[in-house]
Amino acid sequence: MRRHYRAEGLDESALADEPMAQFDQWFAEAVKSGLDEPNAMVVSTADAEGRPSVRTVLLKGYDRRGFVFYTNHGSRKGAELDANPQVALLFPWHPLARQVIVRGLAARVGRDETAAYFRSRPHGSQLGAWASEQSRPIGSRGELEQRYADLAARYPEDEDVPVPPFWGGYRITPASVEFWQGRENRLHDRLLYEDGAGGWTVRRLQP
């Protein structure tokens, strides 16, 4: 159950000066390749005691400041990020034999930015944010669907849905970003950007 990677290599001379520009290049190539949900990323968090948890979410924006996703602040990941802002992200672009691994600090985005994104969501997704007390137990699927139905009756398609006060975005400001390219004989290319006092530096890691 091993795949032989024969992709072109990743050389230091071809890298952008800073990691978000390099990510932008790779993300555009992932989108162009037809990869299913290239914005899917694995988010790893830990609670105040260091106990880890992990899940897949969708990247909803990125720029020089970092990577943004949205969630219920009362969810497990929301509670863990508030208690321990250290986080790791992984973009698993397996068909391209590529990974991007990010380590950084999470902080909530402003309410204006959250509201702007919330209003761009489909109506059903807006209602879903209200219907689900994310990560909390519930008695049955029927109970969840009834909550949604009650909200749909209260806020029909032509009526604005208010932004939930318990829901919003997190921006991950990267301290390091690794670009991983699969190569033959498991001699993969791993180039790591690290943020330091003098700006970004790049090191090659052994596979």
Element-by-element helix/strand order = HEEEEHEEHHHEEE
Q: Tell me, briefly, the overall form.
A: elongated
Rg for CA atoms: 19 Å
Q: How much β-strand is present in the residues?
A: 35-45%
Overall SS class: alpha+beta
Tell me the major beta sheet.
9 strands, antiparallel
**Low-pLDDT segments, ≥5 res:** none
Gap from first CA to last CA: 19 Å
Number of H/I helices: 5
Helix content: 25-40%
| Quantity of strands, as a count | 9
**Mean of all residue-level pLDDT scores:** 95
Keywords: Flavoprotein, FMN, Oxidoreductase, Pyridoxine biosynthesis
Enzyme class: oxidoreductase
Subunit structure: Homodimer.
Cofactor: FMN
Task: Give the SSE layout.
Elements: H1 19-32, E1 40-46, E2 52-58, E3 61-63, E4 66-72, H2 76-83, E5 86-93, E6 98-108, H3 111-120, H4 123-131, H5 141-154, E7 167-181, E8 189-196, E9 199-205
Antiparallel strand pairs: 1-2, 1-5, 3-4, 4-7, 5-6, 6-7, 7-8, 8-9
Task: Describe what this molecule looks like in 3D.
With about 210 residues, this protein is α+β, with helices and mostly antiparallel strands. It is about 25% helix and about 35% strand. It is built from 5 helices and 9 strands. Strands 1, 2, 3, 4, 5, 6, 7, 8 and 9 form a 9-stranded antiparallel beta sheet that branches. Strand 8 and strand 9 form a beta hairpin. Helix 4 packs across helix 5. The longest helix is centred in the N-terminal third of the chain and has 14 residues, at about 20-30. It is elongated and about 55 Å long. The mean pLDDT is about 95.
